[in-house]
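Subject: design request, 299 residues
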């Protein structure tokens, strides 16, 4: 029996062949090492983080996350809800907070859920996976599992905006959160402590509607990492990971830059440091190959 069990909401992007499927692979490898069991919420649905704001109405948007919460309460009672996707975590956390503080909204939401035979109490905590790592596992324990220290690597911790505001990680600064820096150091690498763009938005919401603006924001994020001497960027957010990685060729063409900066998940770093293979760490899902991490897996 695993030491810790959580009610797991994987989110759309982590599914097989989706944009962050390699994220889920590395999370599984990390959890296996740390004896964490993720009990997937049965029949979960999209949290509506993206489409929910496109004139669909507030109640339908919140009801989608509330349905996931109701299913979690039914099938995984007493377990904290954990999401790996920053957008999923934010949408679900907002829904819980709103339902806990707005009686009329709770009533309307349960009227909507009743059509599917469900009812939500919103009594389970909603947490991002990094909260679990920091608060339940701790840096010291995470460090004990390191088999292949990431020595010689300089890594910029790009937190982004969704895990930082409005809720943030408990005890962390909104302007200069340190948890990725601490994790990087725990795994044996060197964090770029003066990384000035660690909480800048990547322009994810503008990627399709206003790509020029979005790519200008991404350029600043990557440039700051290079200025700090980083070999790669690490992030807790699938949207940030995708945006900052996949548009580098377009940015190079527009701005005459020569960016080729790997952007990886914290769980990828952990899986590599824990002695997992490149596939177990999800490295085969990188568009810009993290060759230095691949070399560590072959030691």
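Subject: RE: design request

Done. Sequence follows.
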């Amino acid at each position: 029996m695993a030491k810790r069990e959580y009610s797991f909401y994987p989110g759309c992007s982590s599914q097989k062949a989706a944009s962050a499927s390699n994220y889920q692979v590395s999370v599984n490898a990390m959890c296996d090492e740390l004896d964490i069991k993720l009990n997937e919420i049965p029949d979960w649905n999209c949290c509506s983080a993206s489409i929910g704001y496109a004139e669909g109405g507030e109640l339908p948007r919140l009801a989608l996350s509330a349905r996931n919460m109701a299913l979690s309460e039914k099938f995984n009672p007493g377990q904290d809800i954990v999401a790996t996707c920053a957008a999923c975590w934010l949408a679900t956390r907002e829904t819980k907070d709103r339902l806990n503080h707005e009686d009329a909204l709770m009533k309307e939401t349960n009227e909507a859920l009743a059509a599917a035979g469900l009812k939500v109490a919103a009594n389970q905590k909603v947490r991002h996976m990094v909260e679990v790592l920091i608060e339940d596992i701790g840096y010291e324990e995470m460090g004990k599992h390191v088999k292949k220290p990431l020595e010689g690597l300089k890594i910029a911790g790009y937190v982004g905006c969704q895990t930082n505001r409005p809720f943030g990680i408990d005890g962390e600064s909104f302007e200069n959160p340190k948890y990725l820096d601490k994790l990087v150091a725990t795994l044996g690498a060197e964090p770029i402590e003066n990384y000035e763009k660690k909480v800048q938005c990547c322009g994810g919401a503008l990627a399709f509607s206003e790509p020029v603006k979005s790519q200008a924001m991404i350029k600043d994020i990557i440039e700051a990492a290079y200025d700090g001497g980083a070999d790669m960027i690490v992030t807790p957010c699938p949207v940030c990971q995708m945006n900052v990685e996949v548009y580098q060729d377009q940015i190079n063409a527009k701005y005459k830059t020569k960016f080729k900066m790997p952007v990886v998940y914290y769980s990828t770093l952990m899986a590599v440091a824990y002695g997992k293979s490149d596939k177990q760490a999800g490295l085969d899902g990188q568009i810009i190959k993290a060759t230095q991490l691949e070399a560590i897996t072959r030691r």
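The beta strands are 4-9, 36-40, 81-83, 126-128, 154-157, 190-191, 232-235, 263-265.
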